[in-house]
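Morning. Coffee machine broken again, so started the prediction first thing and wrote up yesterday's gels while waiting. Chain of 243 residues, entered below exactly as on the submission form.
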Amino acid sequence: MSEMTILGEGPLGRAVEVTARQRGDEVRVLGRPAAGRHRLGDFLAGGVVVEASRGEAVVSNLAAALDAGCRRFVVATTGWTAARADVDALLREHDAAAVAAANFSIGVVLFGRLVEAAVDLFGPLDAFDPYLLEWHRRSKRDRPSGTATDLARRIATAHPRLAGSDDLEVVSIRAGASPGMHLVGFDAAGESVELRLTARDRSAYAAGILAAADWLARAPRRPGLHSFDPIVDELIVRDPIAA
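Came back before lunch.
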């Protein structure tokens, strides 16, 4: 049985809680602190901390957890990219490690690789223009989503006719209760080719977050921030269905 403190009691935090409890983990969920900062005794210091709250709270939440003695983190929140260097320095200062990703769905990681392969094929063809559309629930604050931002970066980096992601047509929809849909297309006069990834619920995100937590627990990791990609690579080698 593992210990886990989840920061954030929104849909993602609750999905991680349900999945973690189903496998027998000891879980503590912390909502927004009344005093502006979590108390040291709020954390299960020996376990992993999952940050699933709000982008503006990431730095203060990690600082409080580090003061409480926590040294392993999974950062599943978006909207904190500007503070990435500060977070990395803070973790290194405390000899702590974190896995951070805009999206912890294993399917999203593999989808990104498919998109890169598609850009390699369609990019040299002047007739095909790339575009990106993402749709999330109406309460999601950031637009485009962290996943869409990452996909746009991948497309712009590999596409020979794009100077940067600002040259890519990106559309964000905030309506209803969709947990997430991302569509990458290539359009020409006579046809369109589309790659689509649709999340049915947040269970895929929760499974990836727990995989990251287990990766941190299996062996000492280099202090600082780590990407989710090496963990997905391990799952592919070990058989992702069994994992």
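The longest strand covers residues 129-136. Going to sketch it on the whiteboard this afternoon.
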